[in-house]
Amino acid sequence: MASEVAARNLALLPDVPFDETECEIDWAGPVDLPLGDETAVQAACGIMHVHGRAVGRPTPLAVDYASATAGVLAAQGVLAARIARARGLELRRVRTSVSQAALLAVSQYLAAATTDDPEEPAPAGKPDLCSSDGVRFEIETLDALDWLRFWSVLDADPAAVRRGWRPFQQRFATATCALPAALQETAASRTFIAIAETATATGVSVLPVRDRPGHPADVPAWHITSMPEGEVRPSTRPGALPLEGLVVVESTRRVQGPVAGHVLRLLGAEVVRIEPPGGDPMRGIPPMAGDCSARFSALNAGKRVVELDLKSAAGRRGVHELVADADVFLHNWAPGKAEQLGLDACDLARSRPGLVHAWASGWGAEFGEDPPLGTDFLVQAHSGLAAAIGPDGAAPRPSLMTLTDVVGGLVCAQGVLAALLNRLLTRRGARVDSSLFSAAGVIPRARRTSRGPLRTADGCLLLEAESWAQAAAALAPGAGPEGVEARCADEPTAAVQESLRTAGIHATAVCTDLRALAADPRFGRALGSAAHAFPLAPWEFS
């Protein structure tokens, strides 16, 4: 699956000559565990743990999410190697793994769990909003006053509205959201039309959750529009990494945009991050890693910061000055903001001919000029991904793990790499458009069936689907799968694994604690540690 995703993404390249860069994608990579499929990687590398927080137990995604993410990383590696060769660095081979992709996908949660003062786990809970006429829906607002107005118009209990804001606001960070039952009851007492009208009147975005898993639109992961030819400065020869010597200027927030800049930095680029005067407010959100938010640090460490007020003429001139010495400008502003500020692709190309201007949006062109808020969970709901990630027969619900934010940042970075390669060949800069909505289409929708992890006395184990009968014979002869579950529930994970190993059955221990994962020496070649643990660069070039 990872190879198929990589091939599809590389096929989006403009007219670029064929190249035979070798690309290898394996399951475990530098992780010293016998991982042989998507489900085992999700179990061992923390995806089941994070996705399952909302329901209080490790839960698999029913789609090949880690494999798809690895496919995008592989395509990035191929493009980076080609850029390196065009700049005089002979790189012919790139290697990555599904495990490294999974670790990158949980990097924010890993950082938050491995600080010196980690937060207490948030209680399990998942918004389950359904109208009186049976429409499941997602809501989104980033403003507490809009939240208050929305629920007040619907006559929700004021105390429940106040209690609900914090878990709702924090769900992007915690992957759980225990909303008061009174809010779900209020939703269930109104028709969807009434709820949607209230949302429009109060500035809240509401979308129904699609019950069909297929993506509703055929949109490429990213799209390149060539800019007029200009004077492109000669590219310097890189050092050890493909993008060394290139400069990326980034004005981004939350997850999607910072992920794109983070990936380009891991490939060697210098990333200059524009923040408002006083710094990005997200820097101060607990848990802290030293004097910076651990989650913020996970995606922004190593970037040089320049503070500019983009609302002022001086701040906008500062952007032009930064871009004059840069190769890429990257933002994930709201629709129309770049044009409003005079910082769109054509504006900045006057300061830097040959610039790659990348916009990582929420929706692309899906909703025209007045889209809903372009955030992860709304995109999961509308794109059909929410209907694909659960088991057969389950009601469609988005994961509270930021699935499209991560892949959205990765496909934006891949589009940037494609544009940089094209610039080396054509001397033209480019505008690169990608979105969370287009990224959602990268994730395959074929469901995998799984019984889910087995609970043990101190954790969980994952059995391969074809091993259940053999495991029943070894652990509970004559008792069937229910006997296996009862036997496992009474014994430690290590003891059950040993019993199964003796019978020739492999079982994967499921990560239930990201702090323990970071301390496990078997992950030592995939993770680094400073004020928190972090995934190392997911490519090996040779």
List the total number of helices. 23
Name the poorly predicted regions: none
Mean pLDDT: 92
Radius of gyration, whole Å? 24 Å
Overall form: globular
- The total strand number stands at 19
Order of strands, widest sheet = 5-13-12-11-6-7-10
State the end-to-end distance: 24 Å
CATH class assignment of the largest domain: Alpha Beta
CATH architecture of the largest domain: 3-Layer(aba) Sandwich
What is the number of domains?
3
Kindly estimate the percentage of residues that lie in beta strands according to DSSP. 5-15%
Give a written overview of the molecule:
This protein is of the alpha/beta class and 542 residues long. It folds into three domains: 1-120 and 219-442, Crotonobetainyl-coa:carnitine coa-transferase, domain 1 (Rossmann fold), CATH 3.40.50.10540; 137-208, no CATH class; 454-509, no CATH class. It is built from 23 helices and 19 strands. Strands 5-13-12-11-6-7-10 form a seven-stranded mixed β-sheet, sandwiched between helices. It has a three-stranded mixed β-sheet with strand order 1-2-19. Helix 11 (256-266) packs across helix 18. The longest helix is centred in the last third of the chain and has 24 residues, at 403-426. The protein is globular, with a radius of gyration of 24 Å. The model has no long low-confidence stretch (mean pLDDT 92).
Salient structural properties:
542 residues; alpha/beta; Rossmann fold; 3 domains; three-stranded mixed β-sheet; 23 helices; globular
